[in-house]
């Protein structure tokens, strides 16, 4: 009985104490009582499982505390770098973490990284040393785990509907805590119904439709004047804006990461309001939306629909997802050589050469490109630069040069063409001040229309137009359909 009360009391305290350190913090000392079951029951279930496995109550509680601390510290690090705490879809990143650790290790302070291996080894030795063959504690652990999961199963639906009726991640974590946000949002996400395909009708065939459509999603591309006040912007971007059919700010949903959110928005065109709780990682369920995707809707206009991304296409399952969305050809990092790199990744210049091949080929083509050169992390010494910020600027300028290269190539081709160029998100160059307001997230976009070697403008082209990624999708469709 003492083991039972020990587990009940300590897990309650662990859930509340660990959550106190999670950001964003509540306005008052404790978070809302409505989220208490979702803060305590998962901790109780975890400790019950660990007690079942080890037979040692104190060891199970210690391991539970370690797991909670890792979760809270990881969420705080993410929030500090990307202005967003952990969300349930971050679990999908775990395989990617082991495959591409450099994408994520930048967020972990060096002392913590140095402690990871000895700390993990120490925990393993402690488990071996302190585990007990006693049966009674294991039975208590099984009972606690089963009971807490059963109660959570029956109470989670009402909590989700009452505490988190809408996806407002920062507000949910601030008011109820990290574990409730993970559980409640996951519950909503798993129960969202597939969208109606009513708007997924094929685009109408228009005689003036461009023969070439190039959509370029430029990694971590932003105007330097937006990143550092007073810094001069890229002349290439300014020239493109002066020739653009339409240009302005793209209000992307992520900061410093989440390329796939912008990618999904432009490719599929469903807004965050339509996505609901799927907005945090729509790639996991994007096959539901295949009828909305640009390459599928435009398949009668463009027999060749190319997806180009100079990276491993297994990342976020693009290898399976993009053909499902309607692409007929896939171009990955295997199409490039080590000489094509600038820094750790394939250069924008090499991507430009590959896109020039598409421009010079006969027949209509729709090509969606996701560049890679300016992917983080950025550090002093990268590409011969003195600082991480300088490295980002170097690669971003290469992105602006890619924009100008494609503009010149399409004009020289003399063909009917549409070029859409945008940044997927801003770079996470330094930790954010958790006390500061949410950082600005917008990136630039330009749409350039070419006809007989000249760019096409309208009286409205001189004024910027703010769009979301889904709005950019609709703008592309309107231009191709001649609406």
Automatic annotation (TrEMBL):
Pfam families the UniProt entry points to: Sulfatase
GO cellular component, as recorded: plasma membrane
Chief location: membrane
Protein's membrane topology: Multi-pass membrane protein
Name under which the protein is recorded: LTA synthase family protein
Domain of life of the native organism: Bacteria
Record-annotated Sulfatase N-terminal domain positions: 246-453
Intracellular or extracellular location(s): Cell membrane
Transmembrane segments: 42-73, 110-129, 135-156
Keyword tags: Cell membrane, Membrane, Transmembrane, Transmembrane helix
Position of the signal peptide: none
Keyword Membrane: yes
Keyword tRNA-binding: no
């Amino acid at each position: 009985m003492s083991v039972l009360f020990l587990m009940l009391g300590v897990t309650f305290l662990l859930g509340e104490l660990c959550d106190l350190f999670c950001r964003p913090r509540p306005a008052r000392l404790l978070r809302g009582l409505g989220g208490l079951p979702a803060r305590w029951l998962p901790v109780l279930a975890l400790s019950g499982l660990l007690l079942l496995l080890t037979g040692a109550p104190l060891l199970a509680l210690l391991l539970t505390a370690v797991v909670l601390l890792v979760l809270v510290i990881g969420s705080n690090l993410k929030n500090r770098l990307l202005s967003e705490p952990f969300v349930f879809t971050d679990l999908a990143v775990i395989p990617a973490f082991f495959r591409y650790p450099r994408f994520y290790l930048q967020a972990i302070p060096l002392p913590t990284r140095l402690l990871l291996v000895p700390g993990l080894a120490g925990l393993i030795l402690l488990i071996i040393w302190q585990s007990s063959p006693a049966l009674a504690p294991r039975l208590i652990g099984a009972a606690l785990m089963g009971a807490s999961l059963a109660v959570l199963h029956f109470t989670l639906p009402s909590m989700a509907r009452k505490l988190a009726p809408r996806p407002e991640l920062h507000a949910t974590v601030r008011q109820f805590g990290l574990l409730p946000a993970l559980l409640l949002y996951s519950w909503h996400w798993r129960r969202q119904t597939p969208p109606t395909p009513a708007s997924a009708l094929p685009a109408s065939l228009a005689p003036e439709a461009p023969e070439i459509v190039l959509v370029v999603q430029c990694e971590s591309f932003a105007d330097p004047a937006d990143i550092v006040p007073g810094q001069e912007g890229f002349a290439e971007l300014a020239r493109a804006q002066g020739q653009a059919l339409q240009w302005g700010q793209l209000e992307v949903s992520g900061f410093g990461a989440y390329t796939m959110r912008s990618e999904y928005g432009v490719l599929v065109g469903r807004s965050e309001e339509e996505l609901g709780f799927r907005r945090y990682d729509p790639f996991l369920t994007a096959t539901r939306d295949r009828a909305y995707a640009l390459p599928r809707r435009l398949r009668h206009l463009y027999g060749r629909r190319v997806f180009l991304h100079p990276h491993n296409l297994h990342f976020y399952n693009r290898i399976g997802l993009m053909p499902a969305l309607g692409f007929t050809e896939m171009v990955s990092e295997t199409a490039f050589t080590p000489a094509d790199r600038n820094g750790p990744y394939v250069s924008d210049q090499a991507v430009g050469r590959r896109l020039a091949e598409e421009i010079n080929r006969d027949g209509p083509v729709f090509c969606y490109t996701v560049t890679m050169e300016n992917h983080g992390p950025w550090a002093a010494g990268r590409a011969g630069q003195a600082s991480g910020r300088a490295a980002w600027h170097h690669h971003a300028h290469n992105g602006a040069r890619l924009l100008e290269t494609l503009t010149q190539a399409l004009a020289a081709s003399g063909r009917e063409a549409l070029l859409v160029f945008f940044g997927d998100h801003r770079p996470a160059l330094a930790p954010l001040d958790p006390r500061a307001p949410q950082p600005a997230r917008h990136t630039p976009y330009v749409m350039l229309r070419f006809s007989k070697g000249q760019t096409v403008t309208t009286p409205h082209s001189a004024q910027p137009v703010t769009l979301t990624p889904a709005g950019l999708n609709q703008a592309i469709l309107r231009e191709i359909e001649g609406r």
